[in-house]
Every structure is written in C-alpha cells, then in structure tokens.
TrEMBL record:
Keywords linked to the UniProt accession: GTP-binding, Hydrolase, Nucleotide-binding
Hydrolase among keywords: yes
Key word Membrane present: no
SUPFAM superfamilies reported in the protein's UniProt record: P-loop containing nucleoside triphosphate hydrolases
InterPro entries named among the record's database cross-references: Gliding_Motility_GTPase (IPR052705), Gpn (IPR004130), P-loop_NTPase (IPR027417)
Family as reported in the entry's similarity comment: Belongs to the GPN-loop GTPase family.
GO MF annotations, alphabetized: GTP binding; hydrolase activity
Protein name stated in the entry: GTP-binding protein
Amino acid sequence: MQVQRGYLKILVSGPYASGKTTFVRTVAENVLSTEVPVTTPGEQKVKEYTTVAFDYGKLYLDGIPIYLFGTPGQTRLQFMWRVLAQGMHGYLFLVDGSSLLEVYRARGIYTYMKSLGNYPHIIAVNKQDVKGSVPPSRVASIFNVDPAYVAPLVARDKAMAISVLKKLVDLILTRREERVVP
Ligand SMILES: Nc1nc2c(ncn2[C@@H]2O[C@H](COP(=O)(O)OP(=O)(O)OP(=O)(O)O)[C@@H](O)[C@H]2O)c(=O)[nH]1
Ligand SMILES: [Mg+2]
C-alpha cells in the first residue's frame, strides 16, 4: 500500500482533559509535550497541568512512520488547532466518556473540528475504564455519526490506543485508494 509523502501526520484533538497527552505518551516514545500548570480555577479542579502548544510523538505502524500532534484543549488556545492541522492526513477526536455532560460539551468542539475540512477521522470515546462511562454507540447517536467511526478507548492502555490508531490509519489509506480509483 502506497503512502503519499512516505509518512502520515495525524492530529489528536478533543476538548480539555479528554486524554490527548495521555494518548500520545502511551503510543509514542520520546514524546515532546508543552504542559504548564493550570491557572483557571474551574479547570484546576480537573487536573494540575495542561497543554499550551502541542504534544509531539513518532511511532511506526506496519512500517509506516506516523507523526502525532496532540492539540491543546483549552478553548482560548483553539487557534492552535488550525495551525497544527496543516498538512494532516486525518485526526482522532477524543471525547471524555466518563460523563454525559462532557460528551455534550465535546459535540460543539467536534463541529469546529469538522469545519477545518473533510478529513478522515475517528471519534474515540476515552476513559471507558471509568464505571458508568458513556458507550460509543451513545456518543455516535449524540454526535449523529455512523457508529463504525466511533471507537472505545482507554488512553492509558497501549493495546487499545494502538488499535484505535490503526483504525484511523486504515481509514486514511482506504480513502486514498478510493480517490485514485475512479
Ligand atoms: N480513567 C482514565 N483517566 C484518563 C484516561 N486518559 C486520561 N485520563 C486522565 O484524564 C486527565 C486528562 O488527561 P490529559 O492527557 O492531560 O488530557 P488532555 O486532553 O491532554 O488535556 P489538555 O491538554 O489540558 O486539553 C488526566 O488526569 C489523565 O490521567 C483514561 O483512559 N482513563
Ligand atoms: Mg494535553
């Protein structure tokens, strides 16, 4: 299977604290992250550090070099998404599935992501290890998307994280073949 440019650039996007940095650190080695202490009172309750520029990591999947770019999640830094999306082949959209409120919050941000262009993407419903987490089928119906493009995720679990990434890579490669075959 031919990969244009010899590599894939994949964006890991999603709302604040959905697990983007965790995901990149789980699947790639020597990850570069730009995290600083959280200063916003409401967001401080959720965690101590937040990404302000991006997470960067590289790995190989079936011999293909994959460059991962994790976005910041804070809405005031959303301008970075467009910058980081430059030249991407596709993206993962992480949703914090540990509460229904987070899923509804993520919906508007997903709409913004789609406004950047019609890129292949997978919605990954993270934190499936949390008791009572929202199942992917429910997220698919709330987001009004085909359940085939919504996958369960525990970003701390390497096997699961790699399998979600593979799903996206397969989608990117399939779409590319569809484009060349008239
Ligand atoms: N239970 C559970 N917690 C997770 C999982 N993945 C991430 N977390 C936790 O969720 C919180 C947010 O994770 P981050 O990786 O910092 O999220 P982020 O999307 O990079 O956050 P920002 O860069 O600030 O937007 C942290 O406390 C993580 O430990 C998971 O699969 N399960
Ligand atoms: Mg982060």
